[in-house]
Amino acid sequence: MTNPPCARGALRALYAGLALTCLATIAPYVDCATTHLLADHIRAGYPTYSRARVDSVVTTYLVVLSVLGVLGVLAWLTTAWAVRAGKRWARPTATVMSVIGAGLGLTGLLTRDT
User: Fold this and answer.
1) CB burial of residue 14 (10 Å; 0-12, 13-18, 19+)
2) Are 37 and 25 in contact (CB under 8 A)?
3) Which has fewest Cβ within 10 Å: 2, 37, 40, 102?
4) What is the pLDDT of residues 39-53, one digit of tens each?
5) What is the gyration radius of the CA atoms in the chain, in angstroms?
């Protein structure tokens, strides 16, 4: 069975979102292996932190971002499956997941670190 054109376009967008989520999930690990920007940022914000404490904070960030990334990948894959299968609940589910994802991203971006 061939998907209608609107479903094909939606699937392309879903797979693009999946690819971007994978890149965003991998990026902190690339940073830890190369430039250490996250650690430098934490060190600049908390100059009294020891190296061990900065490493602990970086690890915590990596765990949180990894969990969110895995949940995002699962959400993209579930939504793509629902669209491909022609499920009626695919559109509202995609909308809710988009709102939740945007809300989590904005919360992380706009939360002041004290």
Assistant:
1) buried
2) no
3) 2
4) 999 999 999 999 999
5) 18
